[in-house]
């Protein structure tokens, strides 16, 4: 008997069909438990989302009923409850066993599913949240699981890369006192209506949506009321509502209402884990999808960089720009393998992106020198042209078609990854080499999309000398964080509004094709979370392998630029000009212009070179500069130079 037990134990421990069968059972149990946990999280998110929406008319009826008969439910209250189930957005919360009450309502009856579809927001450049989270059929879910299994199998065969687990990211905690209860919101809505009535604005609040940072009151003006009249009352409304800040969206796209957005008492932080762990992000097929945040209605917003195809991020210091860049990079690390997406990070501030050095997704080390950054952009332009040449040889028009073509011939070595170029501070580059940087950015923005190359440019100085008209015209997708003036907002978005944002990740997101920018509370990721994700990704690669060809071409271009700069610092007329100045014992720009027949700029540059060599003194108003050496000193200098050359 003991021998049989020992044999059974050995069979269980050794790599046998029995042990493999038991291992598969364990994996299936683990998979089922993970699916149950995921369904529980999605259910909680749906319940929280429903709780954020409130129909003011229905809530007013409910609140009035509670005040009249708090102890028992009367017939009148039953009618109100039936009305609530049959009319307005809140009918999605009614029980399916109770029949809706249609009496007294001019609105046609509508199923909860149809109501949800009508109220579903459509965001261009992103994904529709509820369409992904609520409308998947069983067959689609089964196909999605099969696709996920195939995808995981392909990952295992490609360098055995493992995606970072969501457990590395911190769970979100709702701030205490961050939101108002329904009664408080109804009181504020009535106060807003009274404020508008005091200024002879006939309008009513039809809906209230409480987001992470702001609460939006949808005001429906009656016929004959000018929208401009409501917009002009922004300061008066803020005064009467005792609001920290207020922003008016007139009108709300797709609705016959004006949105009045009032800052919450406390901002409810949106963690990046909430978005990455959502069905919207998980079902995004693009490898360069990234988490944006949550809108005013609480919907998860995920954008696809491929459809943008380039992004401009701007905002004042401390508004959340650097956190947004970290969120974008982290999202890509959770979506793409190193052989699918490569990153080129340009960080003139040195400290913002230096932590990413060593991850396998980097094409080259993080670029910190402005001169090398310009060379890196020049390489990107050359790479773009080279990719288009290869596309022409294969008879294709974009990267995905090219990769499919070479894979069909089993030429995996020719497959090219997508490249995302991220510039953390454009202002420093524009100061170092404005014409070169602007030209490279414009060429990439115009043509790089089909080549699978995408550009993300960020700056904390949104002025016209940094975000030039040429750059802005070629980068249509923008994210604007809080700025100090309306002028800066117009520089970023071509419209005002960013100056009314509250900061701390509050943004206006305007993707390509969107009529008006969408207000979003951006995702937050801490330095500790970034460090955990980076360390996990670094462990996937035994040794960092940067592209030697790219680094060599950048170094070569940088050295050529440096040598040409040194050549420019000299001037063929400088020796003759020095002799003239020393002989005449006076130095002025006008004298050099007359004697050598040159322009003002060149003559002034020669005078500056003489000052650097301590041949002439500093400027003295309108008088000529003092000459600091004599003819004898000049002869001695020439003799010493000749002796050095002979030796």
Protein described:
This protein is α/β, with parallel strands linked by helices. Among the domains are: 182-263, Threonyl-tRNA Synthetase, Chain A, domain 2, CATH 3.30.980.40; 283-563, Rossmann fold; 570-646, Arc Repressor Mutant, subunit A. It has 25 helices and 15 strands. The chain has helices spanning 2-13, 17-52, 56-68, 75-86, 112-119, 129-133, 138-157, 182-198, 227-231, 234-241, 272-276, 279-282, 321-335, 370-394, 399-408, 426-432, 434-447, 469-474, 486-493, 527-538, 548-569, 574-584, 589-596, 600-612, 631-646, and strands at 53-55, 203-210, 214-221, 246-249, 258-263, 270-271, 289-295, 300-304, 311-314, 341-346, 418-423, 453-459, 477-480, 506-510, 518-524. The strands form two sheets. Strands 6, 7, 8, 9, 10, 11, 12, 13, 14 and 15 form a ten-stranded mixed β-sheet that branches. The protein has a five-stranded antiparallel β-sheet with strand order 1-2-3-5-4. Strand 2 (203-210) and strand 3 (214-221) form a beta hairpin. Helix 23 crosses helix 24. The longest helix is centred in the first third of the chain and has 36 residues, at 17-52. The protein is flat, with a radius of gyration of 33 Å. The chain starts with a helix and ends with a helix. The model is unreliable at 67-73, 83-157 and 561-569 (pLDDT under 50).
């Amino acid at each position: 008997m003991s021998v049989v037990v020992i044999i059974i134990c050995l069979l269980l421990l050794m790599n046998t069909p029995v042990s493999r069968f038991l291992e598969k059972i364990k994996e299936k149990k683990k998979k089922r438990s993970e699916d149950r946990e995921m369904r529980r999280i999605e259910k909680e998110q749906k319940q929280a989302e429903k709780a954020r929406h409130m129909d003011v008319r229905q809530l007013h009826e409910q609140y009035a009923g509670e005040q009249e008969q708090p102890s028992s439910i009367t017939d009148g209250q039953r009618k109100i409850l039936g009305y609530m189930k049959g009319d307005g957005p809140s009918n999605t919360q009614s029980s399916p066993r109770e029949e809706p009450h249609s009496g007294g309502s001019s609105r046609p009856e509508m199923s909860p599913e149809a109501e949800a579809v009508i109220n579903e927001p459509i965001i261009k450049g992103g994904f529709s949240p509820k369409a992904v989270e609520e409308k998947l059929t069983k067959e689609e879910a089964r196909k999605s699981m099969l696709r996920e299994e195939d995808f995981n199998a392909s990952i295992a065969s490609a360098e055995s890369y493992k995606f970072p687990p969501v457990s590395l990211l911190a769970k979100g905690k709702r701030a205490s006192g961050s939101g108002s209860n329904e009664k408080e919101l109804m009181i504020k809505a009535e106060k807003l209506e009274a404020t508008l009535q005091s200024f002879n604005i006939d309008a009513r609040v039809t809906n209230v949506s409480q987001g992470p940072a702001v609460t939006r009151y949808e005001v429906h003006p009656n016929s004959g009321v000018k929208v401009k009249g409501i917009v002009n009352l922004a300061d008066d409304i803020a005064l009467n509502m005792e609001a920290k800040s207020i922003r008016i969206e007139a009108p709300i796209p797709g609705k016959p209402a004006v949105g009045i957005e009032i800052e919450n008492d406390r901002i409810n932080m949106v963690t990046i884990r909430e978005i990455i762990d959502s069905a919207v992000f998980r079902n995004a097929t693009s490898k360069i999808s990234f988490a944006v945040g949550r809108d005013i209605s609480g919907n998860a917003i995920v954008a696809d960089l491929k459809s943008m195809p380039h992004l401009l991020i701007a905002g004042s210091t401390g508004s959340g720009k650097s956190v947004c860049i970290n969120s974008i990079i982290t999202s890509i690390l959770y979506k793409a393998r190193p052989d699918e997406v490569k990153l080129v990070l340009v960080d003139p501030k040195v400290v913002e992106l230096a932590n990413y050095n060593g991850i396998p997704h980097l094409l080259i080390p993080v670029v910190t020198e402005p001169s090398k950054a310009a060379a890196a952009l020049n390489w990107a332009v050359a790479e773009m042209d080279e990719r288009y040449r290869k596309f022409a040889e294969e008879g294709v028009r974009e990267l995905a078609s090219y990769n499919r073509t070479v894979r069909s011939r089993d030429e995996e070595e020719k497959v090219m990854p997508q490249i995302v170029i991220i510039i953390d501070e454009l202002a420093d580059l524009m100061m170092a080499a404005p014409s070169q940087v602007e030209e490279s950015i414009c060429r990439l923005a115009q043509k790089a999309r089909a080549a699978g190359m995408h550009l993300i440019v960020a700056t904390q100085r949104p002025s016209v000398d940094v975000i030039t008209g040429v750059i802005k015209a070629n980068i249509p997708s923008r994210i604007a964080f809080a700025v100090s003036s309306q002028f800066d907002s117009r520089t970023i978005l071509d419209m005002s509004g960013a100056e009314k944002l509250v900061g701390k990740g509050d943004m206006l997101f305007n993707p390509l094709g969107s009529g008006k920018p969408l207000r979003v509370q951006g995702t937050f990721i801490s330095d500790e979370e970034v460090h955990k994700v980076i360390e996990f990704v670094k462990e996937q690669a035994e040794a960092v392998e940067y592209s030697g060809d790219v680094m060599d071409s950048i170094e070569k271009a940088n050295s050529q630029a440096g040598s040409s700069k040194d050549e420019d610092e000299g001037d063929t007329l400088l020796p003759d000009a020095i002799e003239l100045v020393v002989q005449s014992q006076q130095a002025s720009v006008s004298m050099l212009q007359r004697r050598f027949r040159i322009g003002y700029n060149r003559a002034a540059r020669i005078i500056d070179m003489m000052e650097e060599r301590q041949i002439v003194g500093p400027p003295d108003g309108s008088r000529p500069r003092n000459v600091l050496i004599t003819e004898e000193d000049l002869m001695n200098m020439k003799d010493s130079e000749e002796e050095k050359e002979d030796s």
